[in-house]
Specification:
The structure holds two protein chains of two kinds. Helices cover about 45% and strands about 20% of the residues of chain A. Chain A is α+β, with helices and mostly antiparallel strands. Classes of the chains: A alpha+beta, B alpha+beta. At the A-B interface, α2, α3, α10, α11 and α12 of A face α1, α2, β12 and β13 of B.
């Protein structure tokens, strides 16, 4: 077979094109050397199909860039994603615990120890000068500054909790933003890859987004290839799909109806899918910044309310015995045998250590309207109803929609009540009866409120501080009440204290009304410092100081707290926090090191090396130059052949 | 392994950053002088710092309490010393005043001096510390003796034992007779008296309220008790003394107090009808306790009755009265009277010696207390030093050590900067052509 007369020019041209493309790729690499997430690309250069040169074998036809590939190791990406979320978690925890340390502000001259110490300095002064009114005033003032300091610390902790809650919302917004970008990218990649070639730069961008997303929460990614070779990319959180190909499921936050921990600020967010279901974040399985926020915001050291149901299954009055704590909010959500039911009030029987929860509807709502939501808080499409309550049942008259969610909650005169099922009238003449009683067969099981989150977060420290101020209030009050033959008044009360129910030093429960936010010095004592009692015996003379001495002894009362003396209690709280913070820092440092290692491994594979690119540049430049030379040589032989031969 | 440019810059930045962090730790330590800036830097140091601070502060507090106690005890001691001196001087002057070699004018001067000394006695017993009467027990707002005559009305209950009955001599119808008497806390009483504890017994029938000048005042018939309101005495018939119960209470009323009289609140159980509102009072040993060390308490005050007892007050009164009697009049009604006064005077001098001894004993007790407090303060000083030292060792840096560490860290930091600058600058491009 005869070759074309211009065969050589053709091969030369191939050489020029190939070298040029290779230079372009090098150029692209150099341009993106510092682009975040970029992985270096390489042209796959192959020899073009050879021509049979008669019996004399094959003759080569030149070269071409068959494909542009990227250097990327999916395993290293996977490893990076798994590590970066731990990093995110510890970064957030480190930041927030540092702020907590600032709030506690110890050791310093402006922390609790100074204010608590001042109370005892004032007491010592008082023990020496019990009759001096300025010394009394000074003592009352020291109590006031102590209570203000504690209140302020509580306020700062709650403020921090609000910020954390906001941080969580920001996190969710970011997840949505990434989800939206991922779905867009999936769309673009799908369109481009119809040719079967890889959309390298867009894939880099997609991986970079997963890098960022993984910092917030651990995600699973999967790329599926169907029979036609079409690739579908899927990102999921804890088994629930966030992005599937071009479709993104967005998340949203909804304020909680009830608080998880009694110390919580109201309106804490729970995360839901926009489609309605709650994003159930199994605490053990998530990591990332979100986990950091959740642990700090909700962490209660596993001390959420729990107790054993003594009786009440199938009714609306649940009696719980041996509760682990009794300072729970007046309304909340009780988990019984995996069914969540709202309670609207409770009473505590201190003698038998039993709490009685009322799940029922407010007394006799007749007529009126009600709104209904499903268990995830999505309003149910229903027009105004007329309702009546009788015992364990709520009857809806003439509902516009006969089919409700199988369980949910109904708002009766502003009170939310959980229903666990309903029956339609037979024949359906327009009445629906909702069952609002507790599930059957839960007696003897453990019930709880909120989640058991083992981390020592803000609620934990608030509950510890609550215990501290309650015990201090109770101990100081107990002694002052002994004054003047047992007619003394309370030194500490709480804001809004009306005397009913009375703070009774023999009842721990009554003192649970005091918390770090409402802890104040009794107004009466501030106005009349003569109410500071110095002696238990009436008319004992102005210089009697027996009660003052007993108050001083309180500081060394090792039976006051389970952790010992009051100072030991606070020291151990600060110690716990310091140890947690220290641990977080060392985890973070370790994780940083590991992450750098993986990042470097990734860069070793994917990173652009400028020396290498310079070498390539020279290499391809020379290849181009030589290919051009070939063309000129070819030109010369045509000149020779056409113009010089046979003339 | 391929080493790419970003890898190198990443590593470089991390290393430089870590070096800077270490440098910043030393810098902060030097700036604050403290090993830790926040608890998480070292939880153990942080918690110990809290403990030591509390300890140091408490020790300072105890020291301040002990110093205050010493001041209090010092004031008390001085007052007791002065009272002792006054007693001695009164005793001396009494002897002088009754001496035969003194003329009337001299005697009068001496008696005047005694009266002035009694004024001083009043001031000393009413000694105050920071506005509080040091001998007042808890009732530091009430003086120990009246600063001026008072008409406050008191119902008083005084407890006696059968041992309180003493035998004294009186001249009755120019004969010296033995009289069995109980001396009440005051003279010049009102005539209302309640001795139900005695009259409820079979042995006693009657209480005769009278004055010492009334006939038969010192000679009650068997079964009768004479209550002498002017001298504040209960007189028994000697036949009845065996019937007097082991303990009994006598209630009486008084509403005229002279300057220098004991204030009843500090000595008796009773009711002050003149105070608003009417106040009940009891006398107790009222101890003012200061905490001067960890669970170590000390009683700082001395009760008024430990210094001036009711007996002492009445003995002084009687001594002065007797002295005045002797001094004022050289033409006494009878020789018998004169003899008797002489005897009484000698007896009273003996009693004064006992009281002066008691005062010295009280003074010794206070002195012992001061010594103990001084020892406690010394110990607290040592403790304070120890804890301050511990506190400092726990949380303060060793400047020299940190300086050395910091300069070596600086060297490392500079080296890392230099190495980095060498590594990131050149590329292959720099060497082509």
């Amino acid at each position: 077979m005869a070759k074309s007369a211009f065969f050589g020019i053709g091969v030369g041209q191939q050489g020029l094109f190939t070298a040029r493309t290779a230079l372009d790729i090098t150029n692209h690499n150099i341009a993106n050397a510092e682009t975040k997430g970029y992985s270096r690309q390489e042209g796959v250069q192959v020899a073009t199909r050879p021509l049979a040169n008669g019996p004399n074998g094959m003759i080569g036809t030149g070269a071409e860039i068959e494909n542009v590939i990227q250097h990327r190791d999916a395993y290293l990406d996977y490893k990076y994603w798994n590590m970066v979320n731990t990093m995110g978690e510890y970064e957030i925890k480190n930041e927030l615990l540092s702020q907590m340390e600032l709030i506690f502000n110890e050791p310093s001259n402006t922390g609790y120890s100074t204010f608590f110490g001042n109370v005892f300095t004032a007491l010592h002064e008082l023990s020496i000068n019990p009759s001096d009114s300025t010394v009394r005033s000074n003592y009352v003032a020291s109590l006031s500054s102590f209570s203000s300091f504690m209140q302020d610390m509580g306020e700062q902790l709650v403020e921090l909790q609000r910020e954390v809650n906001f941080g969580l919302k920001t996190n969710v917004d970011q997840v949505n933003f990434y989800a939206q970008q991922l779905s867009t990218l999936n769309h673009q990649i799908g369109n481009l890859e119809i040719t079967g070639k890889s959309a390298n730069d867009l894939r880099d961008e997609r991986n970079r987004l997963i890098d960022e997303l993984s910092k917030i929460i651990n995600v699973d990614t999967k790329e599926l290839t169907d029979a036609n070779g079409k690739k579908t990319f899927r990102v999921s959180i804890n088994g629930q799909v966030l992005v599937h190909d071009t479709v993104a499921n967005y998340l949203e936050v909804k304020p909680r109806l009830t608080t998880n921990n009694p110390e919580d600020y109201v309106d804490m967010y729970d995360i839901y899918w926009k489609s309605g279901k709650e994003l159930y974040l199994d605490n053990d399985n998530i990591t990332g910044e979100l986990k950091g926020y959740i642990d700090l915001r909700d962490g209660n050291n596993g001390e959420n309310f729990t107790g054993e149901i003594l009786s009440g299954q199938g009714t609306t009055t649940i009696v719980v015995q041996n509760p682990n704590r009794t300072d729970i909010p007046q309304a909340g959500e009780l988990n019984m045998g995996d069914t969540l039911m709202l309670y609207n009030s409770y009473t505590y029987d201190e003698v038998n250590d039993e709490i009685t929860f009322e799940l029922g509807a407010p007394a006799a709502v007749v007529g009126g309207t009600a709104s209904i939501e499903d268990i995830d808080g999505n309003p149910f499409d229903e027009t105004i109803l007329s309702v009546s309550v009788s015992g364990d049942q709520v009857v809806l008259d003439n509902p516009s929609n006969q089919d409700l969610a199988p369980n949910g909650k109904i708002n009766l005169n502003g009170t939310w009540v959980t229903y666990t099922g309903y029956t339609k009238d037979v024949p359906a003449v327009g009445q629906i009866t909702l069952d609002i009683q507790a599930p059957a067969a839960v007696d003897g099981t453990t019930t709880f409120v909120g989640d058991d989150i083992p981390f020592k977060g803000i609620p934990y420290y608030l509950s510890q501080l609550n215990e501290f101020v309650r015990t201090i209030a109770k101990s100081f009050n107990a002694l002052n009440e002994q004054g003047d033959g047992g007619t003394g008044t309370q030194l500490f009360t709480y804001e809004g204290y009306t005397g009913v129910p009375a703070l009774d030093v023999t009842s721990d429960f009554s003192y649970e009304a005091i918390n770090i936010h409402n802890f104040i010095v009794n107004e009466a004592v501030i106005n009349d410092t003569d109410l500071v009692e110095t002696s238990a015996t009436p008319n004992h003379g102005e210089s009697a100081n027996d009660l003052v001495l007993e108050l001083i002894e309180l500081r060394h009362d090792s039976g006051m707290f389970s952790k010992g003396e009051p100072d030991n209690f606070m020291q151990s709280i600060i110690g716990e926090m310091a140890i947690d913070a220290q641990q977080v820092i060392s985890f973070k440092d370790g994780q940083e090191q590991l992450l750098l290692l993986v990042e470097n491994q990734r860069l070793s594979v994917s990173g652009v090396d400028l020396n290498e690119e310079t070498t390539n540049m020279l290499k391809y430049q020379q290849a181009y130059n030589v290919a051009a030379k070939i063309i000129s040589v070819m030109d010369e032989i045509y000149d020779t052949t056409i113009n010089r031969m046979g003339v | 392994m391929r080493i790419t440019n970003t890898m190198m810059t990443n590593n470089m930045l991390l290393n430089i950053n870590r070096n800077r962090q270490t440098l910043s730790v030393y810098e902060q330590q030097l700036a604050t002088g403290k090993k830790i800036q926040k608890p998480s830097d070292d939880p153990i140091v942080a918690v110990r710092a809290l403990k030591f601070r509390t300890n140091v502060k408490e020790i300072e507090q105890y020291k301040s309490n002990a110093e205050d106690a010493i001041s209090w005890a010092g004031v008390t001691e001085q007052a007791v010393t002065n009272v002792t001196d006054i007693m001695k001087r009164i005793r001396e002057l009494s002897v002088q005043a009754t001496s035969d070699i003194m003329n009337i004018a001299n005697r009068k001067n001496t008696v005047d001096e005694i009266e002035q000394l009694m004024d001083q006695f009043m001031i000393e017993t009413n000694t105050t510390y920071a506005g509080r009467h040091v001998f007042g027990g808890y009732k530091t707002n009430i003086p120990i003796v009246f600063k001026e005559a008072s008409t406050d009305d008191y119902d008083l209950t005084e407890s006696f034992t059968s041992d309180d009955v003493e035998t004294v001599q009186r001249v009755v119808n120019d004969v010296i007779i033995d009289v069995e008497r109980i001396r009440l806390g005051y003279k010049d009483l009102n005539t209302t008296v309640d001795v139900t504890d005695l009259t409820s017994l079979a042995a006693f029938n009657n209480v005769n309220v009278m004055d010492s000048t009334d006939p038969g005042a010192f000679e009650p018939i068997v079964g009768d008790v004479n209550f002498l309101a002017d001298t504040g005495e209960l007189i028994f018939n000697s036949a009845d003394t065996a019937s007097i119960p082991a303990t009994f209470d006598i209630e009486y009323n008084k509403n005229s107090f002279e300057k220098g009289d004991l204030v009843p609140e500090h000595y008796f159980t009773g009711i002050n009808n003149s105070s608003v509102p009417v106040s009940n009072f009891v006398v107790n040993r009222e101890e003012m306790v200061y905490q001067v060390s960890y669970s170590q308490e000390i009683v700082v005050n001395t009760m008024g009755f430990d210094m001036v007892s009711i007996d002492m007050a009445r003995d002084i009164q009687e001594l002065i009265d007797t002295t005045e009697d002797i001094a004022a009049d050289s033409s006494l009604t009878s020789e018998l009277q004169e003899d008797l006064l002489g005897d009484m005077f000698n007896q009273l001098l003996g009693k004064m010696d006992v009281h002066i001894d008691e005062l010295l004993e009280t003074r010794t007790t206070i002195g012992g207390k001061v010594n103990r407090l001084e020892l406690i303060i010394n110990r607290l000083d040592e403790d304070s030093l120890n804890f301050t030292d511990l506190l400092s060792k726990n949380e303060d840096i060793d400047f020299a050590e940190v300086m050395v560490k910091m300069s070596s860290q600086e060297t490392v930091y500079n080296a890392s900067l230099q190495a980095s600058s060498k590594i990131i600058q050149p590329t292959l491009l720099d060497f082509i052509r």
